[in-house]
Write a structure and sequence with these properties.
- This protein is an all-beta fold and 204 residues long.
- It has a single domain, classed as 7 Propeller (Methylamine Dehydrogenase, Chain H), CATH 2.130.10.
- The chain is 0% helix and 52% strand.
- It has a 5-stranded antiparallel beta sheet, with no helix packed on it. The chain has a 5-stranded antiparallel beta sheet with strand order 13-14-15-16-17, with no helix packed on it.
- A hairpin with a 2-residue loop joins strand 13 (150-154) and strand 14 (157-166).
- The protein is globular.
Length: 204
């Protein structure tokens, strides 16, 4: 089933230079079920926390989902459950998550470019709702690339990491994109040397 724990910190000056931790807050999904792996991935930005549940089964076994929680005062409440527009069995959507302001990026191990080729989804908050804005795929995606295994976003730049085996050599690649413009910036590949090259495509 799983839970996510949020710790809030307060700093006091000048009499106390250290920090005091409040009691941890337990976040539990409204439709939590056994073996959803809720809490497998977490990210926080300001008063918003996103929590991945890659084994959730709304779109089939282990299709995955992500929950958005927002803090109002001292209370955290579930704001929305995120599902991809093309969710499928075994996609593990929510295996990695990252949020920055009104943008969230979610990694998945779907099979559009072959088994476990992977992808990442961009969600943007519009008003009171989170809307899927884009799906990111590597232009040279191949089976077992695990693109989307790790994700990070800051401002309008997202990083999507992957790993795989090609030519019998291990590699890890990172796709860096400028969000909003939907323009891939570069790929950094290590394991067979380091390469920086254009990579990736996005679609709404």
């Amino acid at each position: 089933m799983g839970v996510a724990v949020v710790l809030a910190a307060m700093w006091f000056t000048p009499s106390s230079s250290g920090q005091v931790l409040r009691e941890p807050v337990r976040l539990v999904a409204s439709d939590v079920a056994a073996d959803d792996l809720f809490g497998q991935s977490v990210s926080v930005s300001g008063n918003v926390t996103v929590v991945g549940a890659p084994y959730d089964d709304d779109n089939g076994s282990q299709s995955g989902s992500v929950y958005v929680f927002r803090r109002n005062g001292s209370t955290w409440a579930q704001e929305q459950k995120l599902l991809p527009s093309d969710g499928a069995l075994g996609a593990l959507f929510g295996g990695s998550v990252s949020i920055s302001g009104n943008v969230a990026v979610v990694g998945a191990q779907d099979h559009e470019n072959g088994g476990y080729s992977g992808s990442a989804y961009v969600f943007r908050r519009n008003g009171s709702r989170w809307i899927q804005e884009q799906k990111l795929l590597a232009s040279d995606g191949a089976p077992f690339d695990y693109f989307g295994l790790s994700v990070s976003v800051s401002g309008d730049v997202a990083i999507v990491g992957g790993r795989g085996r090609r030519r019998r050599l291990s590699f890890r690649s990172v796709l860096r994109l400028r969000l909003g413009l939907h323009v891939p910036l570069e790929r950094i590949e290590v394991g067979t040397g380091t390469e920086v090259a254009p990579l990736g495509r996005g679609r709404r």
